Amino acid sequence: MKSQTIVDVRTGARTYTEGDPLPMEVRRKRMSCTAYQMRLALHRMGQLAAVQNVIDADAEASIAWEYATVIKRASGPIVAALADGGFPDADIDDMFAQAMGIEE
Amino acid sequence: MASWTDIDTNRLLPGEPWTSGKALALEENIRALAEQSSGAPRIADNVVSGEASGGGNLIFSGLQEYSGFLAWGGYDESGGADNMVVAYALNGGALSSNTTIINQAGSFVFFLDFTTGAWQAISTGSNLDINTGTIAGIDETVTDLRFSSTSSDLVIMATPQGGLSA
């Protein structure tokens, strides 16, 4: 069931009903963070060095890691390199969740 | 432009003469009201707004007193390529007829005439688009309009109104 907001045009009152969580595929499309947020999140998670090793082994991911200002969960060489490097989807999701929680 | 005349209601009480002066003032007041002449009452407008996130539904209810709906809004395609669709309910019944009105993220303006079902929308995103159409089966008994997408965040400000005059 979708979340729902009902606006009564006679009063302007709004009623909100929580819906089911979005499918993971959709949630991943909505995940993005800055390079700063991702690095700080990985540092706090103790994963920065491990991720750096994976990135360094991939030429395109290295370019993106150095120059991209925004990192998207759903696409791009960084996420592809992480997946190829053996990071499970759930771990990558967690990286983005932690990063998005850091103030820019 | 017609002039607005303040009429002393004491001159309209039972037993007061119905004079041509009063009749002319009332007749001209109607036009003065429409033209918003100096001194005429301001015509009240209705403005409401709402938002939905992650493809949620945004429903405007209580539209039975209106015959048209003008809305400004935007959606973001943050969950991937998406369309904005509108459905309607008559007399508080079930919502039906999902009609795609906009197919690009960005800002939009949308108008729907309840009497004819004719709608038009302009949107500004990657392109400048005008979309038009007719929603079959709709009439002046519309009570609810639902705006929704698959996964986008959505925000709308709207003025329910009198629709297109016949």
Detailed description of the structure:
- The complex is a heterodimer of chains A (104) and B (166).
- The radius of gyration of chain A is 18 Å and the shape is elongated.
- Chain A has 104 residues and is of the alpha+beta class.
- The longest helix of chain A is centred in the C-terminal third of the chain and has 12 residues, at 89-100.
- Helix content of chain A is 53%, strand content 14%.
- Chain A has one domain.
- In chain A, the strands form 2 sheets. Chain A has a two-stranded antiparallel sheet with strand order 1-2. A two-stranded antiparallel sheet of chain A has the order 3-4.
- In chain A, strand 1 (4-8) and strand 2 form a beta hairpin.
- The mean pLDDT of chain A is 93.
- Chain B has 2 domains: 1-43, no CATH class; 48-161, Sandwich (Jelly Rolls), CATH 2.60.120.
- Chain B is elongated, with a radius of gyration of 21 Å.
- Chain B is mostly beta strands.
- A 6-stranded antiparallel beta sheet of chain B has the order 1-10-3-6-7-8, with no helix packed on it. A 4-stranded antiparallel beta sheet of chain B has the order 2-9-4-5, with no helix packed on it.
- The model of chain B has no long low-confidence stretch (mean pLDDT 93).
- Chain B has 1 helix and 10 strands.
- Chain B has one helix spanning 20-35; strands spanning 48-52, 57-61, 68-75, 84-90, 96-102, 106-113, 118-124, 128-134, 142-148, 154-161.
- The A-B interface holds A 2-12, 14, 19, 22, 26-27, 29-30, 74 and B 46, 48-63, 65-66, 78-80, 148, 150-151, 158, 160.
- Strand 1 of chain A pairs parallel with strand 2 of chain B, so a sheet runs across the interface.
